[in-house]
Design brief:
This protein has 138 residues and is mainly α. The protein contains five helices and two strands.
Amino acid sequence: MEEDQLIKTSPDKEKAKSILKMAETTLEMIRTIDLERFPSNAAKEYYDVMRELISVVLLLDGYKTYGEGAHKKTIEYLSKHYKEFTEQEISTIEELRTLRNRIAYDGFFLHKEYLTRKEPVLESVIKKLRDLIKKKIS
């Protein structure tokens, strides 16, 4: 399997807008999920939204990742280049990445309380990413 890579590309605003639209649609869908019944599904979707938004930031900066460890690399990029994200926020994104993998590959089930506890940080990260993207696109 290929090593994780961060490669230089040309910034692509149109592709960024398309991925942003998909992330917004997923975020809208999350709001309809019954957290009592499907907290693990909601957590996976939250992670996907953040991962997509971070990939938009990279794309607008002229980078993309691929291969084994690509998701981890995107989080590291965000942490290194965007100091407006706190250690707690970066740690929460990383934690959610790990949980998403456990859910997807090990059949792990989360409890609603986890999302209830983490929701303020998740929403803060998503808002910061959206604001950052809007500045970069305009």
